[in-house]
């Protein structure tokens, strides 16, 4: 409410200045009306631009949030083996879910285990399983001929 009153006061002050400035050319009230109209139009355009930008920002944030959630989404089978959960699981919370089949609560434990990795020295090694299999098939057929 205070913001609206402040905007009205600022708009009328600016319009008054325009009124005095152009009073010799178009008359005080004509200049006042033109200045007030222009300010309202500019404010409306600015406001709609702001709303558009805000909605696009929020959809970006939502997309990033969904991407993060999908990184934590896992599938696991209930001990009753009748239902497969697809849930977001987090390390710092109690991950308890209710099974709709057996009606019991299922708690998911996250076990962190580490594996020491070595640096790859020779990058020419074929590590693609499909290409290894294909090269073996080709070798055998050559032997048969
Ligand atoms: Zn169950």
Overview of the structural elements:
It is a single chain. The chain has 145 residues and is α+β, with helices and mostly antiparallel strands. It has 2 domains: 2-70; 73-108, no CATH class. The protein is 55% helix and 12% strand. The chain has helices at residues 2-21, 28-71, 129-144; strands spanning 73-77, 84-88, 95-98, 105-108. The strands form 2 sheets. A two-stranded antiparallel sheet has the order 1-2. Strand 1 (73-77) and strand 2 form a beta hairpin. Helix 1 crosses helix 2. The mean pLDDT is 86. The chain binds zinc ion.
Topology at a glance:
Layout lengths: L1 H20 L6 H44 L1 E5 L6 E5 L6 E4 L6 E4 L20 H16 L1
Antiparallel strand pairs: 1-2, 3-4
Helix pairs in contact: 1-2
The structure holds zinc ion.
Distance between the termini: 91 Å
Please tell me what the overall shape is.
elongated
Poorly predicted residue ranges: none
Taken in chain order, the helices and strands follow as: HHEEEEH
% residues in beta strands: 5-15%
Structural class: alpha+beta
Strand neighbour order, sheet with most strands: 1-2
Q: What's the structural domain tally?
A: 2
What can be said about the biggest beta sheet? Answer: 2 strands, antiparallel
Rg over C-alpha atoms, rounded to the nearest angstrom: 35 Å
- Number of DSSP-assigned strands: 4
Average pLDDT, all residues: 86
Helix content: 55-70%
Ligand types: zinc ion
Number of helices: 3
Compose a concise summary of this entry.
The protein is of the alpha+beta class. It is 55% helix and 12% strand. The protein has two domains: 2-70; 73-108, no CATH class.
